[in-house]
Amino acid sequence: MLPQTIKLIIAGVLLLHGLGHTGALMAIVVNWTKRGTPTGSWLPARSWLFPSLAPPAAKTVASIFWILSTIGFVAAAMSFWGIVVPGEAWRQLALAASVVSILGITLFLGT
To answer: What is the pLDDT of residues 41-50, one digit of tens each?
Structure first.
C-alpha cells in the first residue's frame, strides 16, 4: 500500500472517531430537549459509578467527556495532516483523547 494511502486512512480513522463522539452528544441533546417524551433507546446520561449524581450534573459531565474526546481526535487528525498543530503532536493528542474517551465510556456505560 502506498504511504499516502496509509496516511489518508490513519487520518480518516482519527477524524471519523472524533466525529463519532458527536453521536453521544446528540443523544444528550435529544434527551434534554425531549424531556418527558419517549426517545427510543437513548437513555439520559447517568453514571453507574456515581448513581446519586443529579441528572443535570450527569449531563454536564458526560458532555464534557464527549466534547473533549471529539476535539482531541479531530485535533489528532489535523495534526497528522500537519494542519493547525505540529505534526509530531498527533500521537499524544490521540492518546489523550483515547484516555478521555475510555474514561467517559466507563463512567457512563449503559447509557
So the answer is: 666 678 888 8
CA nearest neighbour of 21 among 60, 68, 85: 68
Q: How far apart are CA 95 and CA 33, in angstroms?
A: 33
Domain spans of the chain, in order of start? 3-107
pLDDT in tens, 10-42: 889 999 988 888 888 887 787 777 766 655 666
Q: Which three cell numbers stand for residue 58?
A: 450527569
Contact by Cβ (8 Å): 48, 72:
no
DSSP annotation string for 36-89: TS--TT-PPP--SSSTTS-HHHHHHHHHHHHHHHHHHHHHHHHHHHTSSS-GGG
